[in-house]
Design brief:
The protein has 159 residues and is an alpha+beta fold. It has four helices and six strands. The chain has a six-stranded antiparallel β-sheet with strand order 1-2-3-4-6-5, covered by helices on one side. The protein starts with 19 loop residues before the first helix and ends with a helix.
Length: 159
């Protein structure tokens, strides 16, 4: 568990309310580096490949560096992000209070803070699919070559 964090009561998974999508989008920083993508039935936002915020259940989660998390966790109704609902935080993200969705200015402030911190992280590089495919093809070629070599050796012995 995150240092200084409290566990929120176990809650069943809740679909992200449709009305939260525009609130979240409007609260995101107006920066060309912000990308949005569907996640957990809601939206997530990333910068340089690093997710810094997202909708989950009836609220939003944000990523903050360790030194800044305590302030967010101190908010009434906030807690560690626990997507599985089993009481074990899976990441260094904070689930903001549900009331935050009714206060767009405050949500915007937290998303901006999260964005600013995440923008300083190194760019997250995706493993190239082509490279994986090439490795797989090379392994397959080795197996085929080895089989052919064995078969060629056997036929030479017969003759």
């Amino acid at each position: 568990m995150l240092a200084g964090a409290r566990t929120l009561p176990h809650m069943p998974w809740v679909k992200v309310p449709a009305e939260h999508h525009p609130i979240f989008r409007d609260a995101l920083p107006k920066d060309p580096r912000v990308e949005t993508l569907p996640m957990f039935g809601g939206l997530a936002a990333r910068v340089n490949g690093n997710i810094f915020a997202g909708l989950f259940g009836r609220s939003a989660m944000i990523w903050l560096p360790e030194g800044d998390r305590a302030e967010a966790l101190a908010l009434e109704g906030a807690g560690p992000f626990d997507p599985m609902g089993d009481g074990r935080a899976r990441s260094d993200k904070v689930m903001l209070p549900e009331a935050m969705m009714k206060n767009p200015a405050e949500l915007k402030r937290w998303l901006a803070r999260s964005f600013k911190a995440a923008a300083e992280l190194p760019r997250k590089v995706k493993a190239a699919k082509k490279a994986k495919a090439n490795v797989k093809a090379a392994k397959k070629a080795k197996v085929v070559t080895a089989k052919r070599t064995k078969q060629g050796t056997r036929s030479k012995r017969k003759g």
